[in-house]
Amino acid sequence: MEPVRQPDDEYLLDNPIWHSLTSNHRSLAIGGAAAKRYPPDVADFAGFPDEARPDWAALAKLMSVGESVFVPNVPLPEASGFVSQFASDTAFQQYVYRGTSIDSPTDYDIHELNEADVPDMMRLVDITRPGPFLAGTIQLGRYIGIRAEGRPIAMAGERLHPGRYCEISGVCTDPAFAKRGYATQLVNYLIAQMLERGERPFLHVASDNAQAIRLYQKLGFVWRRSLPVQIVQFVGVEAAMAKERADGETAP
Fold it and tell me: What are the helix (H) ranges across the chain?
């Protein structure tokens, strides 16, 4: 059987942070040709044009001491000024919606979320931990939710946006309102809206989140790749080198 030919622009998903910062989110991008990042209150992501060869010096110029960002999982040079806080080749999985349409009936009122909803959105994030979400993340795209008791009790929205690919993210439901199909309806609604705009939905999900993976597969998302990432903190060149020396002295 012949392999399924992927669209010519699917390479954008190999480096989604960079291609988002250089296309639909370029108005938010901080940095230049060698490294870019989002504003620290919007998203803790940074990218490079070549993930295999990051320009750490260029990124360091965009950072304040103590700040952390998600970056490609490649070795850190000793004098980079960064220390790794977490690294994994398999912690996150990338899924792409391969369908061409979706039936998205809604049993609940779906509302647009805005800046006034951010405190309640942050409360949802705190109790459900859907992934990186900051007070300014709502600037990245459209966020929708289902309300009860005067506040959002389930939400989903748009995050990275490289070219015609739009990431579904921030999917979460207050545990007190779980198992009512809220997440399914919100994700289906976003898929339908993206397809109507001529865009292709994709998402990232933690490898150990079996429940979410089953949901996304049921909705038509297909696994594409593991996403090797790490979280690095900028501590300054001297502090990073001192940590490297200390780690070397304590290694068995």
Answer: 16-21, 56-60, 118-128, 182-196, 210-219, 237-250
Beta bridge partners of 84: 232
Q: Is 131 left (phi over 0), alpha (psi -120 to 50) or beta?
A: left
Residue-number span of the structural domain to which 102 is assigned: 94-224
What's the pTM? Answer: 0.89
Flag whether pLDDT at 91 surpasses 70.
yes
Q: Are residues 115 and 211 in the same domain?
A: yes
240 and 204, same domain (yes or no): no
Q: Say how far apart CA 223 and CA 205 lie, in whole Å.
A: 10
- The enclosing domain of 148 has a CATH number of 3.40.630.30
pLDDT band at 78 (very low <50, low <70, confident <90, very high): confident
